[in-house]
Amino acid sequence: MKKNVNSWIIVFIANVMIALLITSIVLGLLFQLNVDAIIDWIQLNTRIFLLITFLIWGYVMIFSQFQINVVLRLLENPKYEIWIKKTYSITCLLLLAVLLNFALEYFQGSRGVSGTIDWIQVKTRLFLLGSFYLFCMGLFLFALIGRLYISSILLSAFVLTMGVLHGNKLKFLGEPLYPSDFTQTAHFTDVLKMVVGYFSPMSMVFLGTVVMMVVLVYKWLQEVKIHLVSRAAASMFALFMVYSITYHPTTFMGEIVEENHLEIVRWNQLKNYSNNGFVFGYLSNLNHETFEKPENYSQKRVEEMVQAILNEGGATPASFSDERYARPNIIFVMNETFWDPTKLDVSFSEDPMPNVRNYMAEHTSGSVLSPSFGGQTANVEYEALTGFSMSALQSGAMPYQQFIDSKARVPSLASILKEKEYRTIALHPYNKAFYKRTRVYQAFGFDTFISIDEMKHKEKSGSYIGDESVTDEIVMLLEESEQPMFVHAVTMQNHFPYGTKRYEENTIEVSGISDELTLELEVYAEGIKQADAATKKLVDFVSDFEEPTVVVFWGDHLPILGEDKAVYKELNYGDVHEEEEDYRSFHETPLFIYSNVDVERRELHTISASFLGPTVFELLNLDLPPYYQFLVKIRDEISGLAPTVKVDPKGQELLELTPEQEELLKEYQLLQYDLLVGHQYSLDLLFKTENE
C-alpha cells in the first residue's frame, strides 16, 4: 500500500515538473532562448504562466495510471530505484522550498495571496534565489537525517514558525523579525505568556488539526532514503551553498545576489523586508554590523575629541555645587506603556490620568521621544541610563544583549552617581534574567538589582505586579536608606495584551469605538488610571519627605492596541501606514520631573531619553560631568533624536541639519562606538573616579 502511495506521489510531482518543463520549452522557443526575456514575460504574466502549466499538468495526468505502473516496475530494479529516489527527493525539496518561500512572503501581512503573487512577479529573481536558499537548507537536513519526509516536516516547521513570528511581530509591533530577536530565546516561555492572549481558540484548533493530518499522511507514506555516500556529497554541497548565501557579502554569491536586484534599505527595515523579501531582509541584518565602525575611528581621533570636550568646561566629574540640593535622591520611574489615551478620538467616562496631567502642568514636563513602539523596553532604558542613542544603531538592535552584556564596565547615570557615594538601585518587578538585566546592571555600576524575587511588596494588579507595589517598594527604600539614593524603577503592570479581561472591574467606560475593540481600550485605560494613582502616591510621599528628592516619570513607549494597530486605524490616529514618516505620533510619551525642593519649571517639549540625566543635573544645579556637558550641547541643538526625525529644543522638526549639527552627531556616534563597541579609549578620560 505504501509503495503504491509513494508511486502516486512520484507521478504527481513528476507531472508538475514535466508541465513546467514543457511550458519553459515553449517560452524558450518563443523568445529564442533569451532568459531575461522569458523571466520578464513570466513576471508580467504570472497568472497566465501558471494557468498554462496547470492545463498541461492536467493533460499529462490523464496517463497517470500508466505512469504509476512504469514507476512500480522501475522501482523493482535497484539501479533505477536509486536514481528515481534521488530525482524525486530533489524535486520534492525544490517544490517545498518554493511553497515555503511563498508562505514567508505571504506572512509579510498586508499583501495577501494576490499581493504576494504581484511581489513575486516584480522580484522573481530574488524569490527564486530565496527559494534556492531554503532548498539548500532542506537538502542539508535530508543529508543529515537521511529521511526525506522527516526532513521536509522539520524544514516546514522551522520556516513556518519563522513566518508566523515575523507576521505577528509586524502585526503587533510594526517591526519585522530580526536575528537579534533570538538573543532572548531563553525567555521564550515568558514572551509566550505575554502574547498568548492574542491566540484565538480557533487558531489553536486549526494548528492541532494540521499536525494530526501531517502525522496521518506520514503514516501512509513509505519513507525515502538514500545511501550514505550520496548523503555525504549532498551535505557538503548544501552546507557550502547555505554558508555562501548567508554570508554573501564576503563570498562568491555576493555578485550574484547583487545582480538579482537586491537593494538593502538599512534605515527603514519595513521597506527592506518588503522590497527584498523575508529571506534577504533577514540575512541583510545577519550580515550587517549592528553598529558600523566610523571611518575615522582611532585612538588619536577619540583623544582629540575628548580633549576638546574637556577644554569646553567640565574637566572634573560631577561635584554638587549648591548645598541646598546636596546629593538629592533621584528616582527614575519608567512606566510600562504609559501614554495618554485621550489623544484618541473616543469618549472616556473619566480622565484616566488626572494626576500626571496636573504634574505636567505645574512642573518641568514634556514628551520623551521613545525609540520603541509597543515593546523593547530595554532599549528605552538603555538611552535613559547611558545617554547613548538608539539612532546610532541599526534597526532591530538590542544593545543589552548584543553589546553591554560582554562589557565589564559601561558608564551610566548609575556609575556617575555612585562615584559621589550614592546608593544605586535598579528595580523591576519581573524575571531578573529578562534582557540579561542582571549582567547589564552590573556593568552599569548599580549596587543592587531588586527583581520580583527580592521585592518585599509584590501584590499583583491584573497579570503583573501592580504599580502601587512598585511605589511601596520605592518608599520603603527611601525610608530605610542612610545615604542618598538613585533608584531606577521599570514597572510592569500595564504590559500588553489588553484584549482579555484583566481586572475585576474596568472603572472607565469607553464609547465611540467598535464593540470588539472596546474591551481592549477599557483594559488599557484602567491600567493607566491605576498607574496614575500609584504615581500620586509616590509624589505625595516625596512632597512630605524631609530629604531632597526628585522624581523623573515617563512612559517607555506607546501601547499595542489591537492586531495590526486596529484601534489606531479605526480611530484614524496618526498615519499607521507610514509610521516612519509619522514617527512622533507613535513614539512620544508623557514626561514630568517633580522635586520637593524649589526648582525652575521648564518646558522640555520633546526630548530623547538620552538627555534625561543631564537635564536632571541642570534642574538641580549640579555640576555636569564632561560627558553630560557634551550631551547638553547636542540636546540644545537636537533635543529629539531618531533615525527618521530630528526635533529642535522648541519641539519643531528639523527638516535639514546644519553642517555643525551634522558634525556634532558624527562626534556623538564616534564616542558611542568607542564606549560601546570599540576600545573605550575615552572611558578613563571622560569618566574618572574619585580614586584616580
UniProtKB/TrEMBL annotation:
Protein's pathway: Cell wall biogenesis; lipoteichoic acid biosynthesis
Topology relative to the membrane: Multi-pass membrane protein
Annotated compartments: Cell membrane
InterPro entries per the UniProt record, alphabetical: Alkaline_phosphatase_core_sf, OpgB/LTA_synthase_biosynth, Sulfatase_N
Keyword terms of this UniProt record: Cell membrane, Membrane, Transmembrane, Transmembrane helix
Highest taxon listed in the record's lineage: Bacteria
All copies of domain Sulfatase N-terminal, residue ranges: 328-621
TM region(s), chain numbering: 7-31, 51-75, 87-104, 124-143, 148-167, 198-221, 228-247
Name by which UniProt lists this protein: LTA synthase family protein
Organism: Halalkalibacter alkalisediminis
